[in-house]
Each structure stands twice: as structure tokens, then as C-alpha cells.
Write a structure and sequence with these properties.
Strands 2, 5, 6, 7, 8, 10, 11 and 16 form an 8-stranded mixed sheet that branches. With about 350 residues, this protein is of the alpha+beta class. It has 8 helices and 16 strands. The longest helix is centred in the middle third of the chain and has 21 residues, at about 215-235. The radius of gyration is 20 Å and the shape is globular. The model has no long low-confidence stretch (mean pLDDT about 95). The protein binds ligand DP6. Ligand DP6 binds near residues 22, 118, 151 and 293.
């Protein structure tokens, strides 16, 4: 890390990412060290743009968020506190005590059940470092983003397809690239079946993971699945990738359902989509499911099949809407500020 001339205002854009191999369970909840490596793809229609400005003209820290389709509003509460904790860490590093104004804007509906924490924390972290003139390389930026609290955000720093190496210390736990965004024309059709906030946060889920008798078994079989998923991406083996992501999603949800207390994220429509995908595959239409900590389904497919799959998915009763995504770059600095 180098310190150079302070710009004090900067804007970053960053995508959410969909995990092919899930981060579920923490070895260290303070340092956000995961129990296993995870693999993801950035998704281009789920972006957060964040502008930060440090200035003596601000008498207090101001955090404003503009959710998709809503008005820009000052926010307080747990989320804002988390963002400001990250700000404080960087203020210390830069040896500055000026107050900050943050404005963040999402390009996707907040009721789509797509956690915006990955895009939000990675955009914030990158913008903060730039504004304060703290120069980090990608590895360090990924580490700093991880420390913000939403571990999966560290994967959004990397372009395209990323693997978060679990590491065994803060220094060795960060994301690296498997392939860039142009490597493979995949798509992620997010199928929204429920617009409510998730009942049990991922944070709580991470803590509950090891109360499942089967968590050890998951960790045992993961290195092989991680290896095959990495290979499937590198060699563009779509069927292998599909098998791996479905196995991993089921494995993660099996852990949630067998945790104490158990957590059931799926609803009836989630299962209807899983069954439909399996039926369509028998007729040669390839779409594979993965599911995060909620009932919405991410259908991973090849770009040539987007239209057919989307049309069929929308016909399933209980499906509210879909969002089509392609792989994209990770966090980047842009010139145009939000204010
Ligand atoms: C199921 O703690 O990174 O999405 O709740 O978004 O902060 P947030 O999530 P985080 O856990 C992510 C859990 C997951 C799987 C994954 O993205 O790897």
C-alpha cells in the first residue's frame, strides 16, 4: 500500500456476483475468514455506483442510498453503521479526520432478493481508497473489501470469474481471477419468486453452519468440487459446471436445513423451477440452478438459450420477474460522480 496525493472525492462502480461454489461458514467471524474456497461470476445488470467525498465542509458523516426506483434518502441503522466502520478504518490509515458524504445507487430492484452487499461494499471500498489516495493492488483491495463484513464482496473486485482463496490469515484470504469476463458467454437469469427480505441473514447462516452434523462432510468434499468447477470454467465445460453448481447449491441448503435451528430458504416455486430445469434438460435445453440465502433461483445458461429459457421460466406460476445478466468486469473507478 502506498499513499499518494489525496483526491478526496472518487466514484466506483461494482457488480454483485453469483456464487457457483458457496461461501457458507466462517473460521473467524472478526477477520471474515471462510471455511472453504468459493467461486463466482460477476453479474452485469446488478451494479452499485458509489461516490464518496471527504471534506471539512461536512459537519457529520452522511450516508445516502438511492435504491432502484426509489428516491435518494439518508439512511441510518445497521447497514449505515457497517459502511461507516469501513470508512473509519480507512480514515485511520490515511490519517485524516474529515467527515464524509457517501451516495450509493443500485441499478437493480432491492426487492429482487439479490443481496447488494457484495456490490455495495466493493464499490465503497474502492471509492474510499481512491478518494484518500491509498493505493492498493487487487490482492490488497480484495482483502480490504473482505474486512468490510460481507465476505463475498471480495470476489467482486476481480474481473469476470473469481475464486476466493480461504487462506489461514487475513493476509492470505483474498480473491483471484480464474478467467476474465470475455472468456465465456454464459448468462445468469435471476428468477425472482419472492420479493421479501430474507428471513435469516447470511451472517446468521454462517454462524449456524457448523451446528449441522453434515457440515464437516461438506467441507471434506469441497476441494474436489472447487477443483472441478475451476477446471470447468477454464475449459468451458458447461455440463460439468452445471453439475458442480447444482451439487454445491443443494449441499449449502442441506446445511441450512440441518442446522440447529434449521433454516428453510426455498419456497414451492423454487422447487417447481428446479424440477422444470431438470425436465427441460432431458430435451436438450440446458439451464442449471443455483440458489443463495433466499428462495430466488439463478439459472445459469449459455447466452444462446437465454430467450427460450426466460420465456419458459416466466410461465411458471409464482415467478414474479426475471433479470438477465452476463459476466462482467469487477469494481472500477469512473470519472462521473453522483454529486
Ligand atoms: C449464500 O456474508 O458475503 O451468498 O449477506 O451478502 O453480506 P451478505 O453475504 P456474505 O455471504 C454470502 C453467502 C452466499 C454465498 C456466496 O455468495 O458465496
Amino acid at each position: 500500500m502506498k499513499k499518494n496525493n489525496r483526491v478526496l472525492k472518487a466514484t466506483a462502480v461494482s457488480p454483485a456476483n453469483i456464487a457457483f461454489i458457496k461461501y457458507w461458514g466462517q473460521k473467524d467471524s472478526k477477520l471474515i475468514l471462510p471455511c472453504n474456497n468459493s467461486i463466482s461470476m460477476n453479474i452485469d445488470n446488478c451494479l452499485t455506483t458509489t461516490t464518496v467525498e471527504f471534506s471539512p465542509k461536512y459537519k457529520r458523516d452522511i450516508v445516502k442510498i438511492k435504491f432502484f426506483g426509489e428516491k435518494e434518502k439518508e439512511r441510518k441503522g445497521r447497514r449505515t453503521n457497517q459502511l461507516l466502520t469501513q470508512v473509519d478504518r480507512f480514515r485511520k490509515m490515511a490519517e485524516i479526520d474529515w467527515k464524509v458524504k457517501i451516495l450509493s445507487r443500485n441499478s437493480f430492484p432491492s426487492d429482487a432478493g439479490i443481496a447488494d452487499s457484495a456490490s455495495a461494499f466493493s464499490a465503497l471500498t474502492f471509492a474510499l481508497t481512491k478518494a484518500l489516495g491509498l493505493e492498493f493492488n487487487k490482492k490488497e483491495l480484495s482483502i480490504q473489501t473482505r474486512l468490510a463484513g460481507s465476505g463475498s464482496a471480495c470476489r467482486s473486485i476481480i474481473d469476470g470469474f473469481a475464486e476466493w482463496k480461504k487462506g489461514n490469515s487475513s493476509h492470505s484470504s483474498y480473491a483471484v481471477q480464474i478467467a476474465d469476463e470475455d472468456h465465456w458467454s454464459l448468462a445468469d437469469i435471476v428468477v425472482v419468486v419472492n420479493q421479501q427480505l430474507k428471513e435469516v441473514s447470511s451472517w446468521r447462516g454462517h454462524q449456524l453452519a457448523e451446528t449441522s452434523f453434515y457440515f464437516k462432510a461438506r467441507l471434506k468434499e469441497l476441494p474436489e468440487r472447487v477443483k472441478k468447477t475451476r477446471q470447468a470454467i477454464k475449459t468451458k465445460n458447461f455440463e460439468l459446471l452445471g453439475q458442480m453448481i447444482e451439487q454445491d447449491a443443494v449441499s449449502m441448503h442441506f446445511i441450512t436445513m440441518t442446522s440447529k435451528p434449521p433454516v428453510f430458504y426455498w419456497n414451492g416455486t423454487t422447487l417447481d423451477i428446479i424440477q422444470a430445469l431438470r425436465r427441460w434438460r432431458k430435451n436438450g435445453l440446458l439451464g442449471y440452478f443455483t440458489i443463495d440465502a433466499g428462495p430466488n433461483v439463478h439459472v445459469i445458461c449459455q447466452q444462446k438459450d437465454i430467450k427460450t429459457l426466460e420465456r419458459k421460466l416466466k410461465r411458471i406460476s409464482g415467478v414474479k420477474f426475471t433479470i438477465i445478466n452476463k459476466p462482467c468486469r469487477g469494481a472500477r473507478i469512473v470519472r462521473k460522480h453522483l454529486f
